Amino acid sequence: MEPVLKQLTILDTIIRLEDLELYDFITEAGVLPYYCLSWVITWCSHDLGDLDKITRLFDLFLSSNPFMAVYFAAAVVLSRRDQVLALPCDTSTIHSFLTKLPKDIDVDSLCQTACELEEKYSVFEIQCQSSIALDQVSAINRFERDWLPLTSLQSLNDTIEDHIIPILQDKDERKPIELVSTASNKQHVHQSKSILQRLQQLDKKDAFLYTLLTVGAGVSLVAMFMSNSDMMRYVLLVCS
Prior knowledge:
This protein is an all-alpha fold and about 240 residues long. The protein is about 70% helix and about 0% strand. Mean pLDDT is about 80; it is low at about 210-225 and about 230-240. This is Rab-GAP TBC domain-containing protein.
């Protein structure tokens, strides 16, 4: 989850650069960019029921840098600024509102905005602006090197064999890219690091909760079996 949490932190930076009033309002409410997690990791397919809209988004994401999903998520939040600013400055209220991806979103318009954001803030530049560095070998940072030059199925196979598979097989610890510090982003370095740390803490709590739920479900299942001798005999018979 670490790479995704970094991407969500960078999303906050895009909102800050595009709409400081909206960013300050969301930050004051203590809302973390966890609200768009499912948008990024499922390409909105978990949140939209319209197949035409989903396929339109998949067309965009498959033909773009993998970071395009984050640009799109930022475009969605920016498009809802007036609605967000009209809400009480309350964590649960704003988080709940932002979590719900509108079913009637104008996908084409948001795709256009996402592409404009990518053109305005390149993948490397936005990492520098946020002071959050993704891995050197991430598909996001290697997209222009490994994927854009592809012209045929053979070149794809060669790239996978010569570059991608060695990366996957490499057991060494992955290193972040080197960022260029700018005067404009120095004051926001601490804020970005703080957001990332809070996301990491939240993710650990979620992982612990999922573990408890899984163990709890397992214990309940065993108790149910033990309380029903007929069921227990059936399970033993099937497994033997």
